[in-house]
Specification:
The chain is mostly helical and 344 residues long. The protein has a 3-stranded parallel β-sheet. The C terminus is likely disordered.
Length: 344
Amino acid sequence: METILRLLRLTDQDSSEPCRIITAVTIRADSAAADLLSSGDYAIAFPETSILYHGMRRQSTDLLTVETTSMLTNLLRLSNDAYAMELARKIEDRFSLRYVMTRDDFEGLRTQKSATDMTDLDCFIEIIEGKLSNDAKKVWQKARDRHGRYQDLFDSAMKTIKKLKRNIGAATAAQLEADSIKAIVDFELKRNKGVPSWNFRNEGIGRLADDFFLLNEYLSNYGSGRLRKWCTSFGKYLLSKGDVEEIDAVTDEEAQAEKLVEKVAPLLMPVSSFFVAMCHALQEGENELTAIDAYWLGLVDEVVGNDDLWTLRSFEEYKPDPPTNDNKGNKNTTSDGQTDAAGA
């Protein structure tokens, strides 16, 4: 799949821009085909299609040993992590658009539930969940669980690292990783304090490894270009009028962008982290999705024939009907409700 995709994106001997790739599924897309579908610059799903996402697979006729099993486990974990991050890169614009699309409904949801303390992320998660099939809701729940663990682990790890008084700027990567492991050990001991049978020898050591990758994933996401891109692309829509005026008052473009990121990053970080968690959730187990699911998860841009789902294509291709002329000098109304002077 990756080879096909690279070939499609090759330039020519004149170094022209690569072709814009449109992908479509008419009946079913499984595994690599599902990844290829989401890799399109514009991805389309026909309404009755099904789309299957899952993690890496490997077939082998060789006998398994402790050494080969350990090696395969690590390889599959790294491959799943890599594909999750690659999927995130491919669909981030679609997912962020879904977030922007639903923001107008947040206040209504808070009012409906009499829950003024609901965060923007809480509102977004609940709104999208209401649009998903039962199978897709399982993916959504896995993403919620993973994201919740992000925050608990991150908060605990930061407290431990601060106690160690490490000079982060002067520390090596290995030292920072060692600090992270110490923080994770403390986190797991505290979390399982009431479980007498729990220990590191059994399930604990596996959880330690999972937490290590999870914490590094969270920290990498915080410093990623994705968060900055989201801030500069639509960050102003999330701010109050006063904040926008304050940012616009900065004349230097670079300083203005930094000011915008400074104000918006704390608002978007939870959404960005949840997004990454969802991409990882799609690599766990067998995840059967409908075309509608794929739209709301940001995996495709359009479901053919469904006019209720807003698409970039319909926006770009929209042209108002020309005004009619009754030859009497009267104003006429076009089919989209706009009035024009006759003969204009």
